[in-house]
Amino acid sequence: MNIISLSESDCFVLLGKEKERTATTLLAVFIASLLSVSYGFVLHFPHPLTLGNEKWYTAGHISLVIGASIGSVFAGIFIDKLGRRSTILMTSIIYLLGYVLLIFGCPEIQNNENFPIFFTVFGCIYCGIGVGMTSLVVPVYIAEVSSARLRGVMGAITNHAIVFGIFLYSLTAEISNWNVKYYYSVLLGLVITLLSLLMIFMPETPRWLLANDQRDKALKNQLWLLGVKSDAEDTCNYIETNLAHEQIASVNDFCSPVLFRPLIIGSLLFLIHQLTLIGYIIYLSHFLKRFKHLYITLTCFLLQLIFSLAGCFIVKRFFRRYILLFGSTTLLLCSIGFAISSDLNKKLSELRVAYLIIYAIIFITTWGSLPWIIVSEIFPPRARGLLGGIVRSFIWLFYIPTEMIFLKLVSINGSLWFTACISLLSILFIYYIVPETKKLTLEEIDQHYLIYRRF
């Protein structure tokens, strides 16, 4: 049955392949992904708050994570009530408010390194709310404005924008002088957020408009996204037919496989993604701290761009589950191999650098991008906001504990074995539970959970 669905979807994709245009969809995705750049920028941002004082880093970091958990819940409500585009614009304004508060608390303005903790905490909370909202609304918006043919490539842009934001902050911190880099970093984040307000000129997703009885506007937006030669009318009819069988999600529905399975799958996917992301940031921070040279940062930045392009090709070329299985298997073998080598020769620093390079490649091309794509696809339309908000809020609450555990393991050289265990469990999880979503429309994925009652 699954093979039949895939072949039918292939026929549909091939039929519209030459009729659909990609430029306008890419423009909408690019504008929305500016929030993901802010996401990566803010995620690595509290580090300047140390400035020789550990309490500022702790306050900023905890405030950021708490705000992200709250923002995920807000986004789950707003994307269903107000729409995807309106929520993106609201997120941009929240980022702006957070950066303004951080600027007022900037030590260069206050002329005092012990700058007011009020501005720091509330600035990080508002930026954290923006991070939490971004983690939900941007992948959903990209998934809904993209066709089945484009959704994999467009969805991969989310992770690459996040990594770009992390490197952009690292680059700013390296170029700027230590005494003024905090101020410059805040201003750069403010500029990125201002650019995201260009979302005003982008369309709302046709699926949300159809769900809210705005068919004429939905058809107009679908034509704008995919062109006048695309099958916009048939696509809208197909979406409407699927929505007609939908109903508002209730608490009792969480006991049904239609909502329960996507919730479990999405939570575990993002948990593994978060563990790999934390490892990526920690390893990268140690690497840049050890080799603190501008050309090292620039080299990492250029390599990230190359791997990002390769990741888009990989997502388009291969099935999602195969990519994740390859990534987990590679991390498993490399982690075990490097752990054994490190135990034999603890002073061999070249091994750590080699492992970082492999880890970064695997993260950027597999576990960095695929969870964003799959989770934005598997949730049914009636509960996309509700389930997405629950999953991301739950995961954000575990960010600081998992980071502390990883830092502790790094200090005792146990992070390699920890990564190996996570990779082994993820292989079993992907092979037996995670569904394949490549080349399927969002409606076909929704029907998958209605037809198949087991994992």
Quick structural summary:
Helix content is about 80%, strand content about 0%. It is mostly helical and about 450 residues long. Helix 3 packs antiparallel against helix 17.
Description:
Helices cover 78% and strands 0% of the residues. The chain has helices at 2-16, 23-43, 54-81, 84-104, 107-110, 117-145, 151-175, 181-196, 206-211, 215-226, 232-244, 257-290, 294-317, 320-344, 349-367, 370-378, 384-397, 399-411, 415-432, 442-451. The longest helix is centred in the middle third of the chain and has 34 residues, at 257-290. The protein is globular and about 65 Å long. Helix 4 (84-104) packs antiparallel against helix 6 (117-145), helix 6 packs across helix 17 (384-397) and helix 12 runs antiparallel to helix 15 (349-367). It has 455 residues and is mainly α. The chain crosses the membrane at residues 26-45, 57-79, 86-105, 117-143, 150-170, 182-202, 263-283, 295-315, 322-341, 353-374, 386-410, 416-434.
Tally the helices. Answer: 20
Element-by-element helix/strand order: HHHHHHHHHHHHHHHHHHHH
Largest beta sheet, briefly? none
Radius of gyration, CA atoms, in whole angstroms: 22 Å
The tally of beta strands, per DSSP, is 0
The percent range for helix content is: over 70%
Structural class: mainly alpha
CA-based shape: globular
- The proportion of strand residues reads under 5%
Low-confidence stretches: 1-18, 48-52
Mean pLDDT: 77
Instruction: Note the gap between the termini.
Output: 15 Å
Main location: membrane
InterPro entries: MFS_dom (IPR020846), MFS_sugar_transport-like (IPR005828), MFS_trans_sf (IPR036259), MFS_Trehalose_Transporter (IPR050549), Sugar/inositol_transpt (IPR003663), Sugar_transporter_CS (IPR005829)
Subcellular location: Membrane
Transmembrane segments: 26-45, 57-79, 86-105, 117-143, 150-170, 182-202, 263-283, 295-315, 322-341, 353-374, 386-410, 416-434
